[in-house]
Amino acid sequence: MPGLDTTSTADISFMLLIFFLVTSSMDTDWGLSRQLPPPENQAQEEELVIKQRNALCLKLNAENQLTCNDEPMAVTDLSQRVEDFVANSANDPTLPEKSEREVHLMGRCQVSDRHVIIVEVSPKATYDAYFQMQNAVVAGYNHLRDDLAKEKFHHPYAKCNAEERDAIAMVYPQRISEQALEEEGGEE
Amino acid sequence: MKRGVFRRRKHEMPGLNTAALPDLIFTVLFFFMIVTHMREADLQVRYEVPKGTEVQKLTHKSSVSYIYVGRVHGQPTDSFYIQLNNKLATMADIKAFVEAERAKMNSEDQPRMTVSIKADRDVPFGMIAEIKQALQQSFALKVNYSAVQKIKEEYR
After folding, report:
1. Does one domain contain both B62 and B87?
2. Chain A residues near residue B39 by CB distance under 8 angstroms
3. What is the ipTM of this complex?
4. Do both B31 and B79 map to the same domain?
5. B50 plus B30 within the same structural domain
6. Which 64-93 residues of chain A touch chain B by CB within 8 A?
7. Do B20 and B54 have their domain in common?
8. Per-residue pLDDT band at A70 (split at 50, 70, 90)
9. With 0-12 CB in 10 A as exposed, 13-18 as middle and 19+ as buried, what is B153?
10. What share of chain B is helix, strand, coil (3-state, %, to 5)?
11. Which of A65, B5, B33, B75 has fewest C-beta within 10 Å?
12. Using the beta-carbon criterion (under 8 Å), do A25 and B36 form an inter-chain contact?
Protein backbone atom coordinates (compact mmCIF):
# COMPACT_ATOMS: atom_id res chain seq x y z
CA MET A 1 0.00 0.00 0.00
CA PRO A 2 1.81 3.14 -1.12
CA GLY A 3 1.32 6.33 0.89
CA LEU A 4 -1.07 8.90 -0.50
CA ASP A 5 0.74 11.40 -2.68
CA THR A 6 0.32 14.74 -0.93
CA THR A 7 2.77 16.78 -2.97
CA SER A 8 0.02 18.98 -4.40
CA THR A 9 -1.63 19.78 -1.05
CA ALA A 10 0.81 22.61 -0.66
CA ASP A 11 -0.19 24.01 -4.06
CA ILE A 12 -3.86 23.76 -3.22
CA SER A 13 -3.44 25.53 0.08
CA PHE A 14 -1.29 28.14 -1.60
CA MET A 15 -4.10 28.84 -3.99
CA LEU A 16 -6.55 29.17 -1.12
CA LEU A 17 -4.16 31.49 0.63
CA ILE A 18 -3.81 33.70 -2.43
CA PHE A 19 -7.57 33.76 -2.89
CA PHE A 20 -8.05 35.02 0.65
CA LEU A 21 -5.27 37.54 0.32
CA VAL A 22 -6.93 39.02 -2.74
CA THR A 23 -10.54 39.07 -1.57
CA SER A 24 -10.07 40.26 1.97
CA SER A 25 -8.89 43.47 3.46
CA MET A 26 -7.13 43.94 6.72
CA ASP A 27 -8.26 47.42 7.68
CA THR A 28 -10.38 47.46 10.77
CA ASP A 29 -13.17 49.94 10.87
CA TRP A 30 -12.83 52.77 13.29
CA GLY A 31 -15.13 55.68 13.53
CA LEU A 32 -17.08 58.15 15.59
CA SER A 33 -20.54 56.84 16.35
CA ARG A 34 -23.42 59.27 16.57
CA GLN A 35 -27.12 58.90 17.01
CA LEU A 36 -29.35 60.98 14.76
CA PRO A 37 -32.64 62.32 16.08
CA PRO A 38 -35.79 60.82 14.58
CA PRO A 39 -37.17 62.76 11.60
CA GLU A 40 -39.07 66.04 11.65
CA ASN A 41 -42.44 66.00 13.37
CA GLN A 42 -41.01 65.17 16.78
CA ALA A 43 -38.21 67.66 16.39
CA GLN A 44 -40.71 70.43 15.68
CA GLU A 45 -42.48 69.88 18.95
CA GLU A 46 -39.34 70.18 20.97
CA GLU A 47 -38.64 73.65 19.74
CA LEU A 48 -38.70 75.28 23.10
CA VAL A 49 -36.87 78.29 24.28
CA ILE A 50 -33.44 77.56 25.64
CA LYS A 51 -32.04 79.85 28.27
CA GLN A 52 -28.93 81.72 27.34
CA ARG A 53 -26.86 80.11 30.07
CA ASN A 54 -27.79 76.62 28.98
CA ALA A 55 -26.67 76.96 25.40
CA LEU A 56 -23.28 76.67 23.83
CA CYS A 57 -23.50 77.75 20.24
CA LEU A 58 -20.86 76.32 17.95
CA LYS A 59 -20.69 77.65 14.42
CA LEU A 60 -18.50 76.55 11.60
CA ASN A 61 -18.43 78.93 8.66
CA ALA A 62 -17.60 78.35 5.01
CA GLU A 63 -13.92 79.05 5.68
CA ASN A 64 -13.84 76.31 8.32
CA GLN A 65 -13.49 78.81 11.14
CA LEU A 66 -15.00 77.81 14.41
CA THR A 67 -16.81 80.25 16.63
CA CYS A 68 -18.09 79.47 20.06
CA ASN A 69 -20.86 81.79 21.25
CA ASP A 70 -19.70 84.09 18.45
CA GLU A 71 -16.11 84.20 19.66
CA PRO A 72 -13.48 82.67 17.41
CA MET A 73 -11.94 79.57 18.87
CA ALA A 74 -9.34 76.99 17.90
CA VAL A 75 -10.65 73.47 17.64
CA THR A 76 -7.93 72.33 20.05
CA ASP A 77 -9.42 74.46 22.83
CA LEU A 78 -12.94 73.25 22.22
CA SER A 79 -12.70 70.09 24.34
CA GLN A 80 -11.77 72.07 27.40
CA ARG A 81 -14.53 74.56 26.75
CA VAL A 82 -17.13 71.82 26.35
CA GLU A 83 -15.91 70.22 29.52
CA ASP A 84 -16.16 73.42 31.57
CA PHE A 85 -19.53 74.15 30.05
CA VAL A 86 -21.08 70.75 30.73
CA ALA A 87 -19.58 70.20 34.16
CA ASN A 88 -20.08 73.70 35.59
CA SER A 89 -18.34 72.46 38.70
CA ALA A 90 -18.42 75.83 40.46
CA ASN A 91 -22.14 76.36 39.77
CA ASP A 92 -21.36 79.51 37.86
CA PRO A 93 -24.61 81.36 37.03
CA THR A 94 -23.43 81.95 33.45
CA LEU A 95 -22.96 78.23 32.86
CA PRO A 96 -25.75 75.63 32.54
CA GLU A 97 -28.21 74.89 35.29
CA LYS A 98 -28.01 71.55 37.02
CA SER A 99 -30.66 69.62 38.80
CA GLU A 100 -30.46 67.18 41.65
CA ARG A 101 -31.53 63.70 40.78
CA GLU A 102 -31.43 60.23 42.22
CA VAL A 103 -28.93 58.34 40.11
CA HIS A 104 -28.64 54.61 40.27
CA LEU A 105 -25.38 53.44 41.93
CA MET A 106 -24.44 56.98 42.88
CA GLY A 107 -27.27 58.25 45.03
CA ARG A 108 -28.37 61.86 44.84
CA CYS A 109 -26.11 64.04 42.79
CA GLN A 110 -26.01 67.06 40.56
CA VAL A 111 -27.01 66.23 37.01
CA SER A 112 -26.19 68.41 34.05
CA ASP A 113 -29.34 67.68 32.08
CA ARG A 114 -30.29 71.13 30.87
CA HIS A 115 -27.31 72.10 28.75
CA VAL A 116 -27.53 72.07 24.98
CA ILE A 117 -24.70 72.28 22.51
CA ILE A 118 -26.05 73.87 19.38
CA VAL A 119 -24.11 73.11 16.27
CA GLU A 120 -24.46 75.11 13.10
CA VAL A 121 -22.34 74.19 10.15
CA SER A 122 -22.16 75.95 6.82
CA PRO A 123 -22.74 73.58 3.90
CA LYS A 124 -19.50 74.85 2.41
CA ALA A 125 -17.35 73.86 5.36
CA THR A 126 -15.32 70.72 4.82
CA TYR A 127 -16.21 67.39 6.31
CA ASP A 128 -12.85 67.31 8.05
CA ALA A 129 -13.55 70.54 9.93
CA TYR A 130 -16.95 69.21 10.98
CA PHE A 131 -15.43 65.94 12.04
CA GLN A 132 -12.72 67.62 14.10
CA MET A 133 -15.37 69.69 15.85
CA GLN A 134 -17.48 66.61 16.64
CA ASN A 135 -14.37 64.82 17.78
CA ALA A 136 -13.45 67.65 20.13
CA VAL A 137 -16.95 67.75 21.62
CA VAL A 138 -16.95 64.00 22.18
CA ALA A 139 -13.45 64.25 23.66
CA GLY A 140 -14.74 66.76 26.18
CA TYR A 141 -17.63 64.51 27.19
CA ASN A 142 -15.44 61.44 27.34
CA HIS A 143 -12.96 63.16 29.57
CA LEU A 144 -15.69 64.20 31.99
CA ARG A 145 -17.21 60.75 32.02
CA ASP A 146 -13.82 59.20 32.52
CA ASP A 147 -13.12 61.39 35.53
CA LEU A 148 -16.50 60.60 37.03
CA ALA A 149 -16.01 56.87 36.47
CA LYS A 150 -12.64 57.00 38.18
CA GLU A 151 -14.07 58.93 41.10
CA LYS A 152 -17.13 56.75 41.64
CA PHE A 153 -16.14 53.34 40.40
CA HIS A 154 -12.33 53.53 40.56
CA HIS A 155 -11.76 52.46 36.98
CA PRO A 156 -11.90 54.27 33.63
CA TYR A 157 -15.11 54.70 31.67
CA ALA A 158 -13.96 52.19 29.09
CA LYS A 159 -13.99 49.46 31.75
CA CYS A 160 -17.44 50.27 33.11
CA ASN A 161 -20.26 47.82 32.65
CA ALA A 162 -23.56 48.78 31.06
CA GLU A 163 -25.18 49.70 34.38
CA GLU A 164 -22.34 52.01 35.37
CA ARG A 165 -22.31 53.57 31.93
CA ASP A 166 -26.00 54.33 32.18
CA ALA A 167 -25.48 56.02 35.52
CA ILE A 168 -22.66 58.14 34.15
CA ALA A 169 -24.61 59.00 31.03
CA MET A 170 -27.38 60.24 33.28
CA VAL A 171 -25.05 62.67 35.02
CA TYR A 172 -23.45 63.86 31.80
CA PRO A 173 -25.87 63.23 28.96
CA GLN A 174 -24.72 64.18 25.48
CA ARG A 175 -27.06 66.88 24.33
CA ILE A 176 -26.02 68.10 20.94
CA SER A 177 -28.47 69.72 18.60
CA GLU A 178 -27.70 70.25 14.95
CA GLN A 179 -29.63 73.04 13.36
CA ALA A 180 -31.60 72.72 10.16
CA LEU A 181 -29.07 72.57 7.45
CA GLU A 182 -30.35 74.84 4.71
CA GLU A 183 -30.05 77.97 6.76
CA GLU A 184 -27.21 79.36 4.76
CA GLY A 185 -27.39 79.37 1.00
CA GLY A 186 -30.15 76.81 0.90
CA GLU A 187 -33.52 77.14 -0.75
CA GLU A 188 -35.80 76.83 2.31
CA MET B 1 44.19 7.41 4.59
CA LYS B 2 40.99 7.63 6.45
CA ARG B 3 39.94 10.92 4.73
CA GLY B 4 40.19 9.24 1.37
CA VAL B 5 37.72 6.63 2.48
CA PHE B 6 35.16 9.27 3.26
CA ARG B 7 35.63 11.06 -0.04
CA ARG B 8 35.12 7.99 -2.06
CA ARG B 9 31.84 7.02 -0.46
CA LYS B 10 28.94 7.95 -2.72
CA HIS B 11 26.50 10.35 -1.11
CA GLU B 12 23.11 10.74 -2.59
CA MET B 13 21.51 14.04 -1.84
CA PRO B 14 18.12 13.24 -0.26
CA GLY B 15 15.18 15.29 -1.57
CA LEU B 16 14.00 18.07 0.72
CA ASN B 17 11.20 16.79 2.88
CA THR B 18 8.21 18.95 2.07
CA ALA B 19 5.69 16.97 4.07
CA ALA B 20 5.25 19.83 6.53
CA LEU B 21 4.82 22.48 3.84
CA PRO B 22 1.04 22.10 3.49
CA ASP B 23 0.63 22.41 7.24
CA LEU B 24 2.69 25.54 7.20
CA ILE B 25 0.69 27.10 4.41
CA PHE B 26 -2.54 26.12 6.11
CA THR B 27 -1.42 27.86 9.25
CA VAL B 28 -0.77 31.06 7.29
CA LEU B 29 -4.11 30.62 5.53
CA PHE B 30 -5.99 30.33 8.81
CA PHE B 31 -4.19 33.35 10.16
CA PHE B 32 -5.37 35.42 7.23
CA MET B 33 -8.87 34.04 7.42
CA ILE B 34 -9.12 35.14 11.04
CA VAL B 35 -7.56 38.58 10.93
CA THR B 36 -9.08 39.81 7.68
CA HIS B 37 -12.61 40.26 6.52
CA MET B 38 -14.11 40.20 3.08
CA ARG B 39 -14.06 43.35 1.07
CA GLU B 40 -17.55 44.80 0.95
CA ALA B 41 -17.31 46.54 -2.37
CA ASP B 42 -15.02 47.41 -5.19
CA LEU B 43 -14.14 50.96 -4.48
CA GLN B 44 -14.76 53.36 -7.31
CA VAL B 45 -14.31 56.48 -5.31
CA ARG B 46 -11.11 57.56 -3.64
CA TYR B 47 -11.26 59.00 -0.23
CA GLU B 48 -9.09 59.78 2.71
CA VAL B 49 -10.99 59.66 5.98
CA PRO B 50 -10.33 62.21 8.71
CA LYS B 51 -8.25 61.51 11.79
CA GLY B 52 -9.78 61.52 15.23
CA THR B 53 -8.83 60.76 18.79
CA GLU B 54 -12.17 59.53 20.07
CA VAL B 55 -12.87 56.88 17.48
CA GLN B 56 -14.13 53.48 18.45
CA LYS B 57 -13.94 50.15 16.78
CA LEU B 58 -17.01 49.25 14.80
CA THR B 59 -18.48 46.06 16.16
CA HIS B 60 -21.18 43.76 14.75
CA LYS B 61 -19.98 43.82 11.19
CA SER B 62 -23.15 42.14 10.00
CA SER B 63 -25.27 45.13 10.97
CA VAL B 64 -23.12 47.74 9.26
CA SER B 65 -23.79 49.25 5.85
CA TYR B 66 -21.38 51.54 4.09
CA ILE B 67 -21.76 54.75 2.16
CA TYR B 68 -18.64 55.93 0.41
CA VAL B 69 -18.13 59.53 -0.64
CA GLY B 70 -15.08 60.61 -2.57
CA ARG B 71 -13.50 61.61 -5.80
CA VAL B 72 -13.75 59.58 -8.97
CA HIS B 73 -10.63 58.99 -10.98
CA GLY B 74 -10.57 61.13 -14.11
CA GLN B 75 -13.13 63.60 -12.83
CA PRO B 76 -12.31 67.06 -11.49
CA THR B 77 -10.93 66.95 -7.97
CA ASP B 78 -13.59 69.22 -6.54
CA SER B 79 -16.54 67.04 -7.50
CA PHE B 80 -17.53 64.29 -5.13
CA TYR B 81 -19.55 61.17 -5.74
CA ILE B 82 -21.48 58.75 -3.60
CA GLN B 83 -20.96 55.05 -3.92
CA LEU B 84 -23.45 52.51 -2.63
CA ASN B 85 -22.60 48.83 -2.95
CA ASN B 86 -20.57 48.54 -6.10
CA LYS B 87 -21.75 51.47 -8.13
CA LEU B 88 -21.96 55.21 -8.07
CA ALA B 89 -25.28 56.56 -6.92
CA THR B 90 -27.15 59.74 -6.19
CA MET B 91 -28.76 61.14 -3.06
CA ALA B 92 -32.12 59.79 -4.16
CA ASP B 93 -30.81 56.21 -4.09
CA ILE B 94 -29.93 56.29 -0.41
CA LYS B 95 -33.42 55.58 0.81
CA ALA B 96 -33.80 52.50 -1.37
CA PHE B 97 -30.32 51.40 -0.37
CA VAL B 98 -31.13 51.60 3.33
CA GLU B 99 -34.35 49.67 2.80
CA ALA B 100 -32.52 46.97 0.85
CA GLU B 101 -29.77 46.72 3.45
CA ARG B 102 -32.29 46.49 6.23
CA ALA B 103 -34.21 43.75 4.46
CA LYS B 104 -30.99 41.78 4.09
CA MET B 105 -30.27 41.78 7.79
CA ASN B 106 -31.71 39.30 10.21
CA SER B 107 -34.12 40.46 12.85
CA GLU B 108 -31.44 40.56 15.48
CA ASP B 109 -29.28 42.97 13.54
CA GLN B 110 -32.02 45.28 12.36
CA PRO B 111 -32.38 47.35 15.54
CA ARG B 112 -28.66 47.98 15.74
CA MET B 113 -28.28 48.80 12.07
CA THR B 114 -25.45 51.27 11.65
CA VAL B 115 -24.53 53.20 8.56
CA SER B 116 -20.86 53.95 8.27
CA ILE B 117 -20.09 57.04 6.25
CA LYS B 118 -16.69 56.79 4.69
CA ALA B 119 -16.14 60.21 3.29
CA ASP B 120 -13.17 62.17 2.11
CA ARG B 121 -11.96 64.95 4.35
CA ASP B 122 -12.57 67.59 1.70
CA VAL B 123 -16.19 66.73 0.99
CA PRO B 124 -18.33 69.82 1.62
CA PHE B 125 -20.46 69.44 4.70
CA GLY B 126 -23.62 70.19 2.72
CA MET B 127 -23.30 66.81 1.06
CA ILE B 128 -22.81 64.99 4.35
CA ALA B 129 -25.79 66.86 5.75
CA GLU B 130 -27.94 65.72 2.85
CA ILE B 131 -26.86 62.12 3.39
CA LYS B 132 -27.65 62.43 7.06
CA GLN B 133 -31.07 63.80 6.28
CA ALA B 134 -31.77 60.95 3.88
CA LEU B 135 -30.71 58.46 6.54
CA GLN B 136 -32.85 60.17 9.11
CA GLN B 137 -35.88 59.94 6.89
CA SER B 138 -35.35 56.24 6.35
CA PHE B 139 -34.91 55.71 10.10
CA ALA B 140 -31.30 54.62 9.92
CA LEU B 141 -30.43 56.69 12.94
CA LYS B 142 -27.13 55.18 13.95
CA VAL B 143 -24.36 56.68 11.92
CA ASN B 144 -20.67 56.24 12.17
CA TYR B 145 -18.22 58.73 10.74
CA SER B 146 -15.39 56.55 9.59
CA ALA B 147 -11.99 57.79 10.65
CA VAL B 148 -8.54 56.62 11.49
CA GLN B 149 -7.17 56.78 14.95
CA LYS B 150 -4.80 59.48 15.97
CA ILE B 151 -2.72 59.20 19.11
CA LYS B 152 -4.38 61.19 21.80
CA GLU B 153 -2.53 64.16 23.19
CA GLU B 154 -3.88 65.45 26.45
CA TYR B 155 -5.48 68.77 25.87
CA ARG B 156 -5.14 69.88 29.41
Report:
1. yes
2. 23-25
3. 0.75
4. no
5. no
6. 76-77, 79-80
7. no
8. confident
9. exposed
10. 35, 25, 40
11. B5
12. yes
